[in-house]
Amino acid sequence: MKVLIATHNEHKKIEIKHFLDRIGGFEVVSLRDLGITEEPEETGATFRENALLKANDAMHKTGLLTIADDSGLEIDALNQEPGVNSARYLGKDTPYPQKNEIILQRLRDETKRSARFVCAMAVVSPLYRPVVFEGRIEGVIGHRQQGSNGFGYDPIFYPLGQGRSLAEYELEEKNEVSHRAIALKLTLRYLEELKGRE
Predict the structure, then answer these.
(1) pLDDT above 90: residue 24
(2) How crowded is residue 104: how many other Cβ atoms within 10 Å of its Cβ?
(3) Is the pTM above the cut of 0.85?
(4) What is the dihedral of CA 104, 109, 113, 119, to 10 degrees?
(5) Residue 172 and residue 10: Cα distance in Å, rounded?
(6) Exposed (0-12), middle (13-18) or buried (19+): which is 22, by Cβ within 10 Å?
(7) What's the chain look like in SS3?
(8) Which has the closest alpha carbon to 39: 79, 7, 68?
(9) Side-chain half-sphere exposure of 191, counting CA atoms within 13 A
(10) Catalytic residues
(11) What tens digit of pLDDT does each residue of 103-112 get?
């Protein structure tokens, strides 16, 4: 089964492909593989809306079964920012280490550091109705950046009950607990059902 991952983010592609390869039977391609350089503007008010928007756009361009996710970090002390604007927060071209430092500065005197990563994963196809699966992981924002694995806000996010940031997890470990992993497990269950219908 050919599956398009509708992202230009290589880290996301690697994580999703890693899961699909576990099951086998999927030919995974990305927007970059197909020479598609444009993505739709993320105008949705929720992660779910943005995931569907991206998946539908790519599916209509290619006719392929498409997976798209929209995910981000919600920090309670910052009124759930960055939220759906996580990728564009503090400027789309601002490097994440710099974004993370700014967030840490804003929370410098804050005792309430609760936060969560949220992922909405949409699967759309010319043959079946669209579906969206959601994963979330609760945690806290640390006091400094830690770890060199992962990407984005991983170095400042500590899952509840853990003494290390997501950026200190190996890929295999992260793929057991992350918000994207939770959404992906539900997505894969659905894709296996689709394979069974073929």
Answers:
(1) no
(2) 17
(3) yes
(4) -30
(5) 17
(6) exposed
(7) CEEEECCCCHHHHHHHHHHHHHHCCCEEEECCCCCCCCCCCCCCCCHHHHHHHHHHHHHHHHCCEEEEEEEEEEEHHHCCEEHHHCCCCCCCCCCHHHHHHHHHHHCCCCCCCEEEEEEEEEEECCCCCCEEEEEEEEEEECCCCCCCCCCCCHHHEEECCCCCCHHHCCHHHHHHHCHHHHHHHHHHHHHHHHHHHC
(8) 7
(9) 29
(10) 70
(11) 999 999 999 9
More confident: 158 or 150: 158
> 142, 150 in Cβ contact below 8 A?
no
Query: How many residues make up the chain in this entry?
Result: 198
Distances in Å between the Cα of 57 and the Cα atoms of 11, 40, 54, 87, 125 are 21, 7, 5, 19, 11
Whether pLDDT at 9 is above 90: no
Q: Which domains does the chain have, with CATH numbers?
A: 2-197 (3.90.950.10)
From residue 41, how far is each of 2, 38, 54, 57, 105 by CA, in Å?
Answer: 25, 9, 8, 10, 30
Q: How confident is the model at residue 95 (pLDDT cuts 50, 70, 90)?
A: very high
